[in-house]
Amino acid sequence: MTGQQGPTPITFVVPGQRQVARGGAAAPPAAGPPAWPGHVKDSVRVAAQRAGSAGVRVTAVPGEDVVVLHIAGGPPLLLHPENARDLLLGQGTATRSAAVAGDDVPVPAQLRWRGLEQAAPTRMRGFLGDVVLSAFEVLTGLAKDAAVTLATSQVLERVDGQVDAGVYALDAQSLEPLKGSGRKLSQVPAAAEPMLVLIHGTFVETASTFGKLWVMHPQRVRDLFAAYGGRVYALDHPTLGASPIANALTLVQALPDGARLHLATHSRGGLVAEVLARVAGQSGMTATDLAFFAGAGLAAQRRELHALVTAVAAKGIRVERTVRVACPARGTLLASRRLDAYLSVLKWSLELTGVPAVPALVDFLAEIARRRADPAEVPGLAAMMPDSPLVNWLNAAEEPVAGDLRVVAGDLQGDSVTSWLKTLLADAYYWTDNDIVVQTRSMYGGAPRSGGASFLLDQGGRVTHFNYFANDRTAAALVDGLTQTQPAGFRLIGPLSWAGSDAGGVRAARRDAGATAAAAERPAVFVLPGILGSNLAAGGHRIWLSLRPVGGLARLRYLSGVADDVAPDGPIG
Predict the structure, then answer these.
(1) Stretch 517-528: mean pLDDT
(2) What is the pLDDT of residue 218?
(3) What's the 3-state SS for 4-37?
(4) pTM value?
(5) Together in a domain, 131 and 169
(6) Taking a C-beta distance cutoff of 8 angstroms, is the pair 339, 375 a contact?
(7) Range of the domain at 558
(8) In CA terms, which of 35, 166, 184, 321 is 20 to 30 Å from 130?
(9) Could you tell me if 16 and 45 are in contact, meaning their C-beta atoms sit under 8 angstroms apart?
(10) Based on the domain organization, do 121 and 63 belong to the same domain?
(11) CATH number at residue 417
(12) Residues 98 and 217 in one domain
């Protein structure tokens, strides 16, 4: 609450020992200071608390301070004090005691969200009992951006400023940062054959997104350049202050007339591709389309959409193939609920792959945590929110648009530390499968394609949001999905996954009437009678329902491709 005396401080009661430097100033934990702005106001090394002992009282002022939760083996979460309070009070272990009175917030040494221990794989439950919160810090003295809204802030401009928006020609031998490289094209050369354009995601640029392909899979990069005759380009674009519609317009303005596009995208870049495919795949915008962007607050997006439709029609642009990697096609839940936590995990995910977060991103994260900012304030982030006008429009298309779609989806699994973090942390926000940054079931949506929509799902301990282009399987899927008519390993997206209701991809795979396929590719049908269904006999002897089924039920076991002697034996009376 705020009043004439300013925001009300929030007091956290932390088990452990306060870290104090010479002169009485609070010191960072022994692991070393994080690369955050400001300075450490208070710091506690978290440890299990003895019965009856009082914890360390730490105070954070909303709007002035930021709370940092250091997770052992995981990311430091940079949080607004109110978000930290809500997160900690939402845990099954955050119970009050005599040492925690009034509105003080108890901080557990063990982080555990209600229901997650039961949801986690059995082999991981013991690990969840270990101390996983290593330190609790409060930062203060952060530089305050004077801008009234985040959309007009300098920290936002610095993140977007890492790119010089435009289309760049790429080289098969290496991929370096494109800004200032001299490779920017005012006009892409005309070509009768398809050209490939790479489109990166949020907070990053082309080199940091796709660079692992060049470093770890150089032969696959050479295969791409050979397949496209060297016509390989990238769209470097701002991802915060500009909407995906504006990004798509930047691409189209540099394209030649009659351009035939193949698009390879990562994360939010897939929304840019979806916008372009939707506009290029249908004849003009209808009143129904524009109704999604009604209201004074969306006037800029309506103008951008009109400009994009006009430019695509004038140039005759065609999107023939799109390969989307980890795209939040139906939005990402975490970005809409706790933006500071989302950015903390995203920054850590980048660093896991060896890409250090740029200082501008760190400053932006600190400002988000200080303000408790709403992502709806920022056009580029608002586009990733579930039920945003853009997401709703992209998923409302009833008629297929031209081209084909290949989705590369991921779900972090296994016994690694990152997989444990995903189970403990990310599921606490998503409550569904995810790659730490985007939930898997969101990756399948978009406009239906006349050429079909297929997917490849990668699962494992190394499947994180920024690791797709390092992992062999997904790097191969990207290249094969772009260059092959029927890439191996891709399957039709089922309607439940298409609708964002299932993470597996194949539930009741959808096929057009009259389409044929090998039996192995067809969906299975299970007929399950209730308890008052039919009796079953094996070898002429009734097994179910029988007064003595013990030892006989194994004779009813289904064996694929093997003839058995199981037959119905009349209805159950």
Answers:
(1) 62
(2) 97
(3) CCCCCCEEEEECEEECECHHHCECCCCCCCCCCC
(4) 0.80
(5) no
(6) yes
(7) 534-571
(8) 35
(9) yes
(10) yes
(11) 3.40.50
(12) no
